[in-house]
Amino acid sequence: MSFSWGRASAVLRKELRDYRHNRFVIMTMAMLPLIFIALPVVDIVTIPASASNARLDKLIGLSLLYMLLIPAIVPSVLSAYSVVGEREQGTLEPVLTTPLRREEFLVGKALAALVPALGIAYAVFGVFLVIAAAFAHPGVTSVLFDSSHLLVQLLFTPLLAGWSIWVGIAISARSSDVRVAQQLSTFASLPPLALVALMSLNVIAPTLGLALGLGAALLVLDGLGWRGVSLLFDRERLVTGHRSRPAARVSTGGLPRPAVGERSPTVPATLSLTRKWGGIMQGGRPFEILLDRELVGDISSQGTVELPLQPGRHTLQIGIGRRTSPTREFDASEGEMVRFWCRGQLFWPLYLASLIKADLSITLKRE
To answer: What confidence category does residue 248 fall into, taking pLDDT thresholds of 50, 70 and 90?
Structure first.
């Protein structure tokens, strides 16, 4: 089955309809542009005519840099909601069980974030130019309307938005919480802005060749982002959800089960597991407990679980979906209370790295 723009546009139309009924999305698209235009407008109209050329370039570059935060942040928020948000609402499975290809699904989702983001970014930039032309000093406007400044703004707006969108969708497809996905997506959308910031502030001279070269590099990254997200997009995992749980919620950790009418054997050792408060995955669903690679129960935030053990060597791992802790080996002696604690990862860089290495998601340590 070949790629169909008709099916991709159907996803786009559905997303745009959903935006109208989502208060958070509407507030994001309305409030963020107002926040990012307020300070640049104040700066540009208060620049004195006596400002030196270097200071003038710096102030104008800083004002324009605020404009570029819009295509970096707005689409990252929208795209981070695209998959995990639908999964939480229960509307993702009906879509993924249709003949829709994953490439069509992803392109439709990406366009749904790109179209409003570009519309908002260019509209805000236009309003900014109109205000500057009306109220700023003529010397300031002549520098502001210089071709290099306009080139950086017009060229990098869609390219930064594209990067933010593909990073956001990748994180959304691997996340289990909307808020975490949006925070990570916003954080991951900022690195490409560093080079653009250096150009806007004239630390790097924004020549036509340099701008086109960086633009081409970002365009290639955006294309690779689409292909990479398509390859990582696990349709079956998104439909079926997390691994199935066995009927028994707690196992005996390898101890023999007593027959009907027999007395239960003495428990020679105990595993005590505490989930501490805090971490990026604080709250939400319980963590699953895998003892000797067998699912034996789960643990909620600030909870403690005690499980019986046979003496000897065991393994312990905590997980939620594909996100896990490292596997810890430990020895238990007869009558010993073995204590561990766990919580979600505290550090954003490690949590972001867990998209590649899943066992960085949860901290698990022995007391």
So the answer is: very low
- Give a three-class secondary structure readout of 208-250: HHHHHHHHHHHHHHHHHHHHHHHHHCCHHHHHHCCCCCCCCCC
CATH of the domain spanning 269-366: 2.60.40.1120
The two tokens of residue 80 are 């981070």
Output phi, psi for 316, to 5 deg: -135, 135
Share of the chain above pLDDT 90, in %: 11
> Is residue 76 scored above 50 in pLDDT?
yes
DSSP 3-state of 308 = strand
Q: Which has more pLDDT, 264 or 4?
A: 4
CA distance 252 to 220: 54
> What is the distance between the alpha carbons of residues 120 and 116, in angstroms, rounded to a whole number?
6
Q: How many C-beta atoms lie closer than 10 Å to residue 154's C-beta? A: 11
DSSP3 helix / strand / coil % (the chain, rounded to 5): 55, 15, 30
Q: Compute CA distances 304 → 80, 216, 273, whole Å.
A: 32, 53, 6
Helix (H, G, I), strand (E, B) or coil at 341: strand
Q: Where are the domains of the chain?
A: 5-240, 269-366
Instruction: Give the total residue count for the chain.
Output: 367
CA separation for the pair 113, 19 (Å, rounded): 10
- Would you state the structure tokens that stand for residue 93, as one six-digit string? 């499975």
pLDDT of residue 249: 41
Q: What is the pTM of this model?
A: 0.59
Output the six-digit token pair for 50.
């006596």
Strand partners, 331: 313
Three-state secondary structure call for residue 275: strand
Are 137 and 49 in contact by the 8 Å Cβ rule? The answer is yes
Tell me if 254 sits within 8 A of 280, measured CB to CB. no
Alpha carbon distance 46, 162 (integer Å): 33
Full DSSP string of 40-99? HHHHHHS--TT--HHHHHHHHHHHHHHHHHHHHHHHHHHHHHHTHHHHHHT-HHHHHTSS
H-helix or E-strand containing 270? strand 269-275
pLDDT bin (cut points 50, 70, 90) of residue 207 is low
Q: Which residues pair with 362 in a beta bridge?
A: 344
Give 46-67 pLDDT, tens digit per residue: 887 777 777 777 777 777 777 8
